[in-house]
Amino acid sequence: MGSGRLVKSFLFSISRRKPMKPDGEQLTLNRCLTTLDLVALGVGSTLGAGVYILSGEVARDTAGPSIIICFFIAALASVFAGLCYAEFGSRVPLTGSAYLYSYVTVGELLAFITGWNHLLSCVIGTSSVALAWSGTFDDLIGGHISKFFAENAAIGLPGLAPYPDVFAAFLIILLSGLLAFGVKESTTINKIFTAINILVLLFVAISGFVKGDICNWQITSDKLLNYTTENSLPSNTFGNGGFFPYGFTGTLAGAATCFYAFVGFDCISTTGEEVKNPQKSVPVAIIASLLICFLAYFATSAALTLMMPYYMLNKKSPLAVAFEYINWGPAKYAVAGDLCVLLGSMFPMPRILFAMARDGLLFHPLTKVTAKGSPAIATISSGVVAAVIALLFNLKALVEMMSIGTLFAHTLVTVCILILSNEPDSRAVDPEYSFLKPPSSPNSKSSKAVTILTILVIITAICLLLTQALDAISALEPWSLALVSIFAFAVLLITFFIWRHPQNLTKATFMVPLLPALPILTTFINVYLMVQLGAETWLRYAIWMLVGLLIYFLYGIWFSVQRRLQFYPNLKASRLELTAYRAE
Question: What range(s) does the Cationic amino acid transporter C-terminal domain occupy (predicted)?
Fold first, then answer.
């Protein structure tokens, strides 16, 4: 009996939820951001690597000129996730993004895991962008920085970078100081950088359409064969030419990669407590920033593949090489616009740390703010960690880990939307529940049924993807067609039952359309992308998660604010009371 109570207490502890409007929680951040600030932040943190690096690699090796379709498919998937973030941003106008949304919907342990995943993507994203910018800048000045450190400070240890990238680390520390100084000041600089970046990409797009050649979208197989023969390459290295040189399957694979170019918009939802009108500004900024980024990616990737044949594009500096190809060499210095992406990618990290620390799941000093309402300790701490990683590590193998963290966060947010839309309604007076005839208003039983159905959808999607039937269907294998048909019917049936259950009538400034189909489709896409990642990536991810779970079970579960309120229900969650509780 005692062990039963212990297990029940443990399960209650990891599943306790935070109220949407916590009683007594002090909002210490400064509400100073406008819708324009948020749009600039979203564009600045999203628009960059996809154009300056990713576009060349995907076009050259995966999709060819059809990269413009890759970005369209990726943008569509990102918009689906963005709609879910937008609704939560209007319902829960606090800092924390996916971590907070999970906490108020599915409980403390999953919220911690979501926040820990988000931190992973932010830290690695910041480090990788800094390294990419450092490498580009070094190329522009003739490689003097890398040459100096390679000769005088070589590391030579397995798993680490060949030499420390001091410039990238310095860049992160510098911008961390700027972010710690003040939110409004840093967003003002971000708006300037973002405006420069957009002007640069507008120049790239115009240049491509002026100097481009439509023949580069119609490359013949003979021309491709001549190029591979001259360079002693296998004849099938670059596909078969034309607009779809690698076939439509190559375009779909490219779309999976291009999805990561839209990672970053969720930084908008971390600013809920720093926005003047979050219920309106957060949803508008998320959708607007995704639209702007899609138009920029579409135009610049089209221009890039028009300027030169896709098989000649450079993976590391596609724009710079393309400008040299059309004899506009000095224009390659435009790639310096990528710096705004670094500032934008750094912005969410301290806010997630701050939110988790304020809830007691991470260490209390991270909640310290400056007189201007900026989370200074969290900003400097996250900047130092990102700087150390950029200084010592070769991040080529770690970039996919960033994708796991982001995709997991996106998946949980979409699942939370399904659960939230079927939360018990205060007007629900009918305690009866029938699976075939649910009550007219959500109650605890119907809400629990929707949660179970949502879990079944996720399990069904994972089972389908692990069988690889979807990948084999292009070969018209009978077994794959049968499996896909069975799983598709199961998903449609579950979706139908979820749809039949009543939704909560509580309105928000923005609400996700096409419930429950859109969140379920988004979940399927995200799970599909995660399954495509390699075993080594999942192993590294498991190590990161092990560290996080140790922190939670050794610290967070004991110092959680919700745990304190569980034992002291009459106390408010003020910072002074929290400090006094910890002092005990």
Answer: 510-558
